[in-house]
Design brief:
Blueprint (H helix, E strand, L loop, with lengths): L13 H28 L6 H22 L9 H18 L1 E3 L2 E7 L2 E3 L1 H17 L11 H15 L4 H17 L4 H24 L7 H11 L10 H12 L11 H4 L11 H33 L4 H26 L16 H19 L7
Helix pairs in contact: 1-2, 1-11, 2-13, 3-4, 3-5, 4-5, 4-6, 4-12, 4-13, 5-6, 6-12, 9-11, 11-12, 12-13
Length: 378
């Protein structure tokens, strides 16, 4: 590949890349199973979503290759510009973006949609790694600065509204500051203050003082505590997801044989609840294999971070690991009823171009840091 000295290729993490490609392939199988009947009933090809996901995969792999070809140290000079461009995009989407199901998160680009909040995750990792490369930038109460950096994008994303992505931003920031060597007591105080602030925001929204948290988001929190308080309304998705996961048994009902998915009891089964489809049709065994593939990606990411040649590379890798970990925990927890429903996608499996492109770029960042993990001596 252009731009990469031949001596670096001995460090290429083929296990990381193969695990990613297997998950994408599994995702396409699950997407087909979840959507084929519904698409045919609407007069569309059963491969409609699969073909689009294949296009997104090819574009994502091109993006991954471009990311690998540029030494990650070169990104330092562009991180601020990328951050501010994403702020502009997050503002613009609130003004002229496409509204779907009450959320204004997308730009309509011909036959495709672009979700700026997905790309903003990469921008966040770049700017935080840049800022925290110097250890003194997080000493004492300077530790607050990384959270000020994420404050504006988090607020803009909450206004879309998209609480799930806002949670991921916060998770990335805490993970990167902790690994960067921030004082644990200060981080604990910040977490407590953040929790108290969130509680006040929710209380204010319940009382009608604030408009940040929407009524349906509050209902999701209440349903998380007791899904059966509204079993045919806001609790429906969680209940059907838990039924799908539980009915899969050890080996599953088989491909295209999941009743909750095939009979359309399970909403958003090719997006938010794709893991429920995997669990129902491929059972406990299929679910464990899927989770193990994610754990391999996280393990290889941690390994790359620990072997990075410099602090900046280490923080980039930690940010990417945190990105995948947050999505995995929140999405799978949501399908099992142990996390609130947030609409957060499952990396590589969920249908969607913006999320797949973002995740493949994150894999490209990990591969980039891994390739250049050793200093070359002459």
């Amino acid at each position: 590949m252009v731009g990469i000295p031949r001596r670096y290729w001995r460090n290429f993490d083929i296990i990381l890349l193969l695990s990613t490609l297997i998950l994408i392939a599994l995702g396409m199988v699950a997407i087909y199973s979840a959507s084929a009947n519904r698409l045919m009933n609407n007069g569309l090809s059963p491969f409609y979503y699969v073909k689009r996901q294949a296009i997104f995969t090819l574009l994502g792999l091109v993006g991954l290759a471009l990311v690998i070809s540029i030494d990650y140290r070169a990104w330092l000079r562009w991180s601020r510009q990328i951050y501010f461009i994403n702020i502009i995009l997050l503002i613009a989407v609130l003004v002229i973006g496409k509204t779907t199901s009450g959320s204004q998160r997308w730009f309509k680009l011909g036959a495709f949609n672009l979700q700026p909040s997905e790309i903003a995750k990469i921008a966040l990792i770049l700017i935080l790694a840049h800022y925290m490369e110097k250890r003194e930038n997080i000493q004492g109460w300077k530790l607050l600065n990384p959270f000020f950096i994420i404050g504006l994008p988090v607020l803009l994303i909450m206004l879309q509204p998209d609480m799930g992505t806002a949670m991921v931003f916060i998770g990335i920031a805490f993970s990167m500051t902790f690994v960067a060597g921030a004082d644990g007591k200060h981080l604990t105080l910040i977490a407590m203050a953040g929790g108290a602030t969130l509680g006040l925001i929710i209380f204010g929204s319940l009382q009608g003082w604030l408009k940040i948290v929407k009524p349906y988001q509050i209902n999701r929190l209440l349903v998380f505590l007791d899904p059966y308080r509204d079993p045919t309304g806001s609790g429906w998705n969680v209940i059907q997801s838990m039924i799908a996961v539980g009915s899969g048994g050890l080996f599953g009902k088989g491909f295209l044989n999941g009743s909750q998915s095939q009979l359309n009891f399970l909403p958003a089964n090719h997006t938010d609840f794709i893991f429920s489809v995997v669990a129902e049709e491929f059972g406990f065994v299929g679910s464990v294999i899927t989770l193990l593939l994610f754990l391999v990606i996280i393990w290889r990411g941690i390994r790359i971070a620990s072997n990075a040649k410099d602090r900046y590379g280490m923080l980039l890798a930690v940010g990417c690991v945190a990105l995948f970990s947050c999505h995995l925990v929140i999405n799978v927890g949501m399908t099992l009823g142990i996390m609130p429903v947030t609409g957060l996608p499952l990396p590589f499996l969920t249908y969607g171009g913006s999320t797949l492109l973002t995740n493949l770029i994150a894999i490209g960042i990990l591969l980039n840091v891994g390739l250049r993990r050793k200093k070359i001596m002459f």
